[in-house]
Design a protein that fits this description.
Helix content is 35%, strand content 23%. By secondary structure, it is an alpha/beta fold. The protein binds NADPH dihydro-nicotinamide-adenine-dinucleotide phosphate and the ligand O=C(O)C1=N[C@H](C(=O)O)C[C@H](O)C1.
Length: 265
């Protein structure tokens, strides 16, 4: 399968280039970056000490048009632009970017009527297993437990809470028969009053090079359950993305996430 990667100089872009080179069934056909990036014209593997034979380009249209699947971990505005190119050239898309607003999510759903798309806030198998565990834990701990979600990421992350923490909130809220929009508490400061048991609270840590930690706490009287996932590398996101690209090869259109790719639906 022919893979195009956008955001080629980013943290995930580099992990994806490495994973694509290590995948015997995948060929890197385009590595794309924004105009002005110092890597334009250089070999896409240069900063990894690898030789790919593919030069980083800023011509997204030409690069994406050559691929079977685009893998995009950039920013919402960039992803939506790339998705239009995928649409024009009938190229599948794996979207890992987080931080979309409702209109952005709607635009992805519309594009997926024409091309196949995997859109997931976390591509790791481990985190997707945790989503399933949370469904079960929440159904069991559905009364008498205050639910709080804590996430920690590196200092350069620009969106908060993480897409993964929000998805965890959605999974928990859905298992309680609620919607996250109605019960999320994203900030507390000053005299907040007592905690409303119907809420799901979020707390965010940013610092250093933390790849990504997530904990869901079920705080009861006299006991506490904590379900934690910790990433030590970005490789599982990249390997999961290639798994998603392979899943899309056999599909003509439709919006999927990693639960579909992993058969966890
Ligand atoms: N779903 C998942 O499993 C995961 C999702 N993510 C998400 O992926 C995204 C990227 O994360 P990360 O790699 O750490 O970020 P980086 O900032 O390291 O990389 C982002 C890349 O995208 C490029 N870029 C930024 N804005 C645009 C734009 N408007 N158009 C085109 N390219 C653009 C950047 O170029 P430049 O440097 O020139 O700005 C850079 O190459 C985030 O939303 C993050 O939350 C991250 C890890 C896992
Ligand atoms: O920006 C990151 O780094 C990550 N972003 C994703 C998110 O927002 O959930 C996935 C992972 O947590 C790393």
């Amino acid at each position: 399968m022919k893979i195009a990667i956008v955001g080629a100089s980013g943290r995930m872009g580099l992990a994806l280039i490495k994973a694509t080179l290590n995948d015997s069934g995948a060929t890197l056909v385009a590595a794309l970056d924004q105009p002005g990036s110092p890597l334009i014209g250089r070999d896409a593997g240069e900063s990894l000490g690898l030789q790919t034979g593919v030069r980083v380009s800023s011509d997204a249209e030409a690069g994406i048009a050559q691929a079977d699947c685009l893998i995009d971990f950039t920013r919402p505005e960039g992803t939506l632009r790339h998705l239009e190119i995928c649409r024009r050239h009938s190229v599948a898309a794996v979207i890992g970017t987080t931080g979309f607003d409702a209109a952005g999510k709607q635009a992805i759903a519309e594009a997926a009527q024409e091309i196949p798309v995997v859109f997931a806030p976390n591509m790791s198998v481990g985190v997707n297993a945790v989503f399933k565990v949370l469904e079960l834990a929440t159904r069991i701990l559905n009364e008498g437990y205050d639910i709080e979600i804590v996430e920690a990421h590196h200092k350069r992350k620009i969106d908060a809470p993480s897409g993964t923490a929000l998805r965890m909130g959605e999974v928990v809220a859905s298992a309680l028969g609620r919607t996250l929009d109605d019960c999320a508490v994203f900030a507390r400061e000053g005299v907040t009053g007592e905690r409303d048991p119907a809420t799901i609270g979020f707390a965010v840590v940013r610092g250093g090079d933390i790849v990504g930690d997530h904990t869901v706490m079920y705080c009861g009287e006299g006991e506490r359950v904590e379900i934690t996932h910790k990433m030590a590398s970005r490789d599982p996101y990249a390997v999961g993305s290639l798994r998603a690209a392979r899943f899309l090869l056999e599909r003509k259109n439709g919006l999927y996430d990693m639960q579909d790719v992993l058969g966890l639906r």
